[in-house]
Amino acid sequence: MVKNMNKALLSKPSGLVEQALKVNKQTTTEDALNIDYTATVGQPNCQNAKFSTQNVNVYYANNQAIHDVSLDIGAHEVIALIGPSGCGKSTYLRCLNRMNDTIDICRVEGQILLDQENIYHQKQDPVLLRARVGMVFQKPNPFPKSIYDNVAYGPRIHGLTSNKAELDELVEASLIKAGLFQEVKDRLQAPGTGLSGGQQQRLCIARTIAVQPEVILMDEPASALDPIATAKIEELINELKENFTIVIVTHSMQQAARVSQRTAYFHMGRLIEVGDTNQIFTNPAHELTEKYITGRFG
Ligand SMILES: Nc1ncnc2c1ncn2[C@@H]1O[C@H](COP(=O)(O)OP(=O)(O)OP(=O)(O)O)[C@@H](O)[C@H]1O
């Protein structure tokens, strides 16, 4: 099914998908078009929710960036968050491991449950939360340390191993899962920053995996990479979903189609539509989703 969908996406006239990414200077406003963009279309709930987010509103000082978003994220699914630039994808993503706490003017309202527990409860330690809900950023950001120490950093801080042999094993296992071990096994003491961009990103994924998270948040993880390195990251995402729940923000609709089982379309801070990736890309129910997917904004 996904293959067919990919074909459909990739067979669109060239430039169409790219146009959709440029959104939306000349877009006629939704109000003028009389399009309802206040209620979510589709099925935001999951039977096996890892995260359950209810009525989430996010503000940067007086500007509201997220409006009343309710969405579940199922265990062991890859869900893609897509939408025009500035629609709030990263802001919503950062709510899931409280990375927004690091932005002084940011305020999050609503309920966000991880395994049915409120991650914004005052007793929740954000550092421990971020070990459970890891994050991979757009630009690979290895520490200025050796490849080994990059991966060993988290397990050391969290006391995950009790001796050097165990730590060695965990570092190796994490590098294997991140698809990097074969390329670096003979130079584990070399600086992580000396790797290629794609290798650095896989190192960051290994570093995230090493603390044994349950969820991995990825904010445009391949946007700084060339097509070959991107393909490796996408293959990796497919493998990682066996063990982790993955939420990925991407500007590439092809990438969303290739890696995710569900897709959520955001527009102006609102969750417009969510559904099976196949349905979103081949038969979107909301007019705004359709306009975005087909590049017909404006
Ligand atoms: N640190 C911040 N301080 C103030 N406003 C912010 C901050 N981060 C984001 N915003 C605002 O919140 C809104 C949503 O931004 P966000 O980065 O979440 O969107 P996005 O969909 O991820 O965009 P892009 O695809 O361009 O990365 C935008 O209006 C943006 O200007």
UniProtKB/TrEMBL annotation:
GO cellular component entries: membrane
Which domain of life does the protein's organism represent? Bacteria
User: What region holds the ABC transporter domain?
Assistant: 51-293
The molecular function terms in GO held by this entry are: ATP binding; ATP hydrolysis activity; phosphate transmembrane transporter activity
Q: Which Pfam families match?
A: ABC_tran
UniProt keywords (A-Z) are: ATP-binding, Nucleotide-binding, Phosphate transport, Transport
Q: Which InterPro entries match?
A: AAA+_ATPase, ABC_transporter-like_ATP-bd, ABC_transporter-like_CS, P-loop_NTPase, PstB-like
NCBIfam families per the record? 3a0107s01c2 (TIGR00972)
| PANTHER family, per database record | ABC TRANSPORTER I FAMILY MEMBER 17
* Listed name of the protein: Phosphate ABC transporter ATP-binding protein (PhoT family)
Species of provenance: Marinicella litoralis
